[in-house]
Design a protein that fits this description.
Order of helices and strands of chain A: HHEHEHEHEHHHHEHEHHHEHEH
Number of helices of chain A: 15
Oligomer: heterodimer
Strand order of the largest sheet of chain A: 2-1-3-4
Helix content of chain A: 40-55%
Number of strands of chain A: 8
Radius of gyration of chain A: 20 Å
Number of strands of chain B: 10
Shape of chain A: globular
Number of domains of chain B: 1
Strand order of the largest sheet of chain B: 2-1-3-4
Helix content of chain B: 40-55%
Distance between the termini of chain A: 37 Å
Strand content of chain B: 5-15%
Largest sheet of chain B: 4 strands, parallel
Largest interface: A-B, 45 and 50 residues
């Protein structure tokens, strides 16, 4: 059912190179999901999220001090090792300090035509954030126009919004089926779909996603009747981990990750000022912890996910040294426990100790199952 | 023992600096006795803005308080462990963990219970800044009005009206918010006075540091820590600006009379990031080799505000008053305050380590350095950001670089013996021998 998505995810570089050859278009590597892909699609640029490889490496120690998260170092390693040598540009939208270093080292040490630092506001709760971001998007649009040698019209931007909205809407629909008892798609399969959407042209991803949804709506697929879990926390594209979790009697039914629901949970709403509409979407999307202040908007959102998807427990994962999540995790665990959703905390590195984690997940599931008995 | 090359003498204004510092904490604690208010926030927060609420508004700034805790190793450990027991990770900012620990234990470093602020007023450029006070409020039991201003709009070289407007608009909202939560009427004249004093103080500090280009260095970095700290406490206050004016005069006297911080100066260094506060003896150890750390981008630019001078050198930024600009309105004051702070050297590397490398190389050249000691500081992700790239750039520029790993506020992450051993090796590579 998800063969195509898996193929895209596993052969992401082959796909991007082929896309480039086929279309003659430019490919933009991006480091954070606050990047406004709408503008890139408007310019017929393929946005490809730069992710790590989950393989040990020895090339980033000279560039990033070891107290920063393994994810940012793994991403940079891919650049230094030439894995993304087909990129025409790289960009980042401001989020945490950690991933920012992957970007700043990349543009210094990996030759690239175009680079852009978009100063996405952190105070997204301010009434001034949307206007500010709209202004920054206008500046970014000009930079892109200069780069591609073509002015982007309102129609182009509108088209970019439509491409993104359609794909996000379908992902929301896919997740809605995961609210069902014994959902017909597993957490591992969902993750393959979610990762691939961040690196495949949405115009190719969307029709395949529609087919998948039609199949699920028609009752295809095998039932996943494990203990219902959610996973949340730092960046997580560790498919092997999710596979292990589901192999011992769990079904991951939802998540709060940037490779997951945070990426597609809301759409750009209609507005005559397209850039302002895009800005509003990014300011109002489920927040990254680095932007979740002064009010904690993440907690009610996470609790709502937990209730809507009827989860029994939550695995809270954190990339080692990930300060933004470290600042949220105690409050989130407390809030989940208060609504009787038990939690298991796990710290991730570039590679994770699957054997040890398996024992901990099994123990966690046993604990949850005992709750059912009594 | 080598013959003394230069004469040296203690700073005449040293005790005054210590008095100002202790008085800062005392005024905060005693604020309520006379109907005043307390606020808590970061050393970089726009303190000039709450100053417009009256002359009885007293801050406590988190980072210098955390550093003070670090100096008291017994209390520091208790604070850090109290925070860990609440579930917070050991690798978070150690100032923040110390500050939170002091709240959790309900103990103030300088005696008594932790004095609860009436409101929190913060800015945000590092991932931890606004979150620090979000959590602090929760640890206080909640209900403390808290406001944070996002200043992360990119480096000063790329500043635009859109970026300035975003910050200024948050400030205007902040003033409305301050009036609402305190029930006080805002006084623009006090704001304007505070903005002028902040520009004056931070420019004066840069001028003081620029005088350390002279050989011998009139100040060593260990002494500078006790002086720059006043700017981290209350950079907008007249007391601090006046003190820096007095210190500047003394510096000029020292430079003119070749009065050295280190009598046997033979080797000039700089460090980077906050030092391990419990182990400032590292700097005394350097003196045995005739080595002096003359400062750093951290001590120069955390508070000091700089600009390119007509002769191509780096010097204090000319203040609005020096330019003959009279601030007349609230909006004008806020715009000047924003522009002034956005040019702060220690805010630039948050967007690019390469801008910081350029500034460090510039310091190395203009301050006539022989080598650089980089503190890979596990306690501060903000100032350690990009430090490995800084190392590469400095090496490429031809400067010998030593790194040592530690933590400004968590002694469990500092290996004193290993650091001293590294210094021995570094001195050997620089051709320096122990002369004591």
């Amino acid at each position: 059912m998800i063969t195509q998505f898996r193929d895209w995810e596993q052969n992401r570089h082959t796909y991007a190179k082929a896309w480039k050859e086929k279309t003659g278009g430019k490919v933009m590597g991006y480091f954070c999901t606050y990047v406004p892909e709408e503008i890139l699609y408007a310019a017929n640029i393929l946005p490809v999220r730069i992710l790590g490889s989950h393989e040990p490496h020895d090339v980033t120690e000279a560039h990033i001090f070891g107290m920063f998260c393994p994810f940012c170092r793994d991403c940079l390693a891919q650049g230094l090792k030439g894995k993304y040598n087909y990129l025409d540009g790289v960009m980042i939208s401001q989020s945490c300090l950690h991933i920012r270093q992957a970007y700043t080292s990349w543009i210094k040490h990996v030759p690239i035509d175009f680079s852009y630092y978009l100063p996405m506001p952190n105070n997204i709760q301010s009434t001034h954030a949307v206007k500010y971001l709209a202004g920054e998007l206008a500046q970014f649009k000009v930079a892109v126009e200069k780069w591609i040698g073509k002015e982007l019209t309102d129609e182009d931007i509108k088209h970019g919004i439509e491409i993104m909205n359609e794909n996000r809407g379908l992902m929301q629909q896919l997740y809605s089926y995961k609210k069902n008892e014994n959902p017909l798609i597993s957490g591992e399969e969902t993750m393959e779909v979610a990762i691939s959407e961040q690196m495949v042209d949405k115009r190719e991803h969307t029709p395949v996603l529609k087919e998948l949804i039609d199949k699920i709506a028609g009752g295809a697929g095998s039932k996943n009747n494990g203990t219902r879990l959610m996973v949340l926390g730092s960046e997580d594209d560790d498919i092997a981990f999710i596979r292990m979790v589901e192999s011992v009697g769990a079904t991951v039914v939802t998540d709060d990750h940037c490779v997951g629901t945070r990426y597609f949970w809301n759409n750009v709403e209609n507005n005559d000022d397209y850039l302002e509409a895009i800005a509003r979407r990014y300011c109002e999307r489920p927040a990254c912890p680095s932007k979740d202040w002064i009010e904690r908007s993440r907690i009610p959102h996470i609790l709502s996910l937990a209730k809507d998807f009827d989860v029994k427990g939550a695995i809270v994962i954190q990339q080692k040294f990930c300060d933004p999540h470290e600042l949220d995790i105690p409050a989130i665990i407390k809030a989940l426990n208060a609504i009787d959703v038990k939690t298991l905390f796990l710290e991730f590195d570039v590679t994770v100790p699957l054997g040890q984690f398996k024992i901990r997940v099994e123990a966690f599931l046993e604990m949850l199952q005992e709750d059912d008995l009594f | 023992m080598a013959t003394q090359k230069y004469k040296t003498e203690t700073l005449k204004c040293w005790n005054k600096a210590k008095e100002i510092r202790m008085n800062f904490y005392k005024k905060y604690v005693d604020a309520h006795d006379n109907g005043g208010l307390r606020w808590a926030g970061g050393a970089w927060s726009f303190g000039a803005i709450p100053a417009g609420l009256g002359n009885d508004i007293f801050p406590i700034t988190g980072e210098p308080y955390g550093a003070s805790i670090a100096f008291n190793k017994e209390f520091s450990l208790r604070c850090l462990e109290a925070t860990e027991r609440k579930g917070y990770a050991r690798d978070l900012c150690s100032y923040m963990r110390s500050y939170w620990g002091s709240i959790i234990l309900d103990e103030f470093l300088f005696g008594g219970k932790f004095p609860k602020p009436d409101f929190m007023w913060q800015d945000h450029i590092c991932c931890s800044h606004a979150k620090w006070y979000q959590v602090a409020n929760e640890l206080e039991g909640g209900g403390i009005p808290t406001y944070s201003i996002d200043v992360a709009v990119g480096p000063y070289q790329d500043v635009t009206d859109n970026k300035i407007d975003y910050i200024v608009n948050q400030m205007h909202d902040g003033i409305t918010w301050l009036e609402k939560i305190t029930g006080r009427r805002y006084n623009d004249e006090l704001l304007i006075e505070a903005v002028n004093q902040e520009c004056r103080a931070t420019s004066l500090w840069a001028e003081i540091c620029a005088l350390n280009k002279g050989i011998p260095a009139a100040l060593d970095e260990k002494s500078m820590y006790s002086l720059y700290v006043l700017g981290t406490l209350e950079k907008h206050s007249k007391v601090v600006a006046d003190f820096y004016a007095e210190l500047l005069d003394e510096m000029k006297y020292r430079v003119e009379n070749q009065i050295a911080a280190t009598p046997n100066e033979r080797c000039r260094l700089m460090s980077d990031t906050q030092p391990p506060w419990g182990f400032l003896n590292v700097f005394r150890y350097l003196e045995q080799f005739g080595a002096v750390s003359v400062g750093s981008l951290y001590t120069f630019g955390l508070i000091g505000v700089w600009e390119d001078k007509p002769d191509g050198s780096w010097g204090p930024r000319e203040t609005p008053q020096q330019k003959g600009i009279e601030i007349k309105t609230r909006d004008q004051a806020l715009r000047i305050l924003t522009d002034w702070n956005l040019s702060k050297p220690e805010w630039q590397h948050f967007y690019s380590p390469h801008i910081k490398s350029d500034m460090m190389i510039r310091i190395a050249k203009e301050w006539h350095l022989d080598g650089i000691m980089l503190h890979y500081n596990r306690g501060c992700e903000g100032l350690s950001l990009g430090i490995a790239e800084n190392r590469l750039a400095l090496i490429e520029a031809g400067y010998p670089v030593m790194t040592f790993e530690g933590n400004m506020g968590d002694e469990r992450e500092f290996d004193e013996a290993k650091t001293m051993s590294r210094i021995d090796s570094f001195m050997e590579t620089l051709g320096m021998k122990n002369i004591v």
